[in-house]
């Protein structure tokens, strides 16, 4: 979505929107996963990125990323590899900047990334309010 087409979320009539859910390429029973390689990179949940057990919350994660994209016109997570870190490590860093450090028991031995040391923490409601100028009350509601 370019800047000319970007909508002001506070002025949009959301009741007129329709949505189709498509692309069930990795669909499986929640208790019988087919693969650990799931989800489009930009909508991938931490569990899938880390190769740990995942469930239906992975789908909710993707949906939340898509809602953010529909509201802002931007991807919530767009990781890139750097000279000293991988795309996966950047993805983890983006998660941590938005959600806070990951508990050691879930992700990282010491709760730290290998190569990325400086993180800039910015809560989702603050991103929506400060970067996209969404009224704070609406930003808090959407972020919850």
From TrEMBL:
Biological classification of the source: Eukaryota, Viridiplantae, Chlorophyta, core chlorophytes, Chlorodendrophyceae
Cross-referenced InterPro entries: Kinase-like_dom_sf (IPR011009), Prot_kinase_dom (IPR000719), SRPK (IPR051334)
Annotated SUPFAM superfamilies: Protein kinase-like (PK-like)
Entry keywords, A to Z: ATP-binding, Kinase, Nucleotide-binding, Serine/threonine-protein kinase, Transferase
Domain Protein kinase, first and last residues per copy: 1-144
GO molecular function, one term: protein serine/threonine kinase activity
Enzyme Commission designation: 2.7.11.1
GO biological process: regulation of mRNA processing; spliceosomal complex assembly
Organism: Tetraselmis sp. GSL018
Protein name (Swiss-Prot/TrEMBL): non-specific serine/threonine protein kinase
Catalytic activity: L-seryl-[protein] + ATP = O-phospho-L-seryl-[protein] + ADP + H(+); L-threonyl-[protein] + ATP = O-phospho-L-threonyl-[protein] + ADP + H(+)
Entries under PROSITE patterns matching the protein: PROTEIN_KINASE_DOM (PS50011)
Keyword flag Nucleus: no
Highest taxon listed in the record's lineage: Eukaryota
């Amino acid at each position: 979505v370019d800047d000319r087409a970007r909508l002001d979320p506070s002025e949009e009539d959301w009741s007129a929107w329709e949505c189709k859910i498509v692309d069930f390429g990795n669909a499986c029973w929640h208790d019988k996963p087919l693969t650990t390689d799931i989800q489009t990179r930009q909508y991938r949940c931490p569990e899938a990125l880390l190769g740990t057990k995942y469930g239906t919350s992975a789908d909710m994660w993707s949906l939340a990323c898509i809602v953010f994209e529909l509201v802002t016109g931007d991807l919530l997570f767009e990781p890139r590899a750097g000279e000293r870190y991988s795309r996966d490590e950047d993805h983890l860093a983006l998660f941590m900047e938005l959600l806070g450090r990951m508990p050691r028991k879930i992700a990282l031995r010491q709760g730290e990334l290998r190569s990325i040391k400086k993180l800039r923490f910015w809560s989702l409601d603050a991103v929506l309010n400060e970067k996209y100028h969404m009224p704070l009350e609406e930003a808090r509601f959407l972020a919850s």
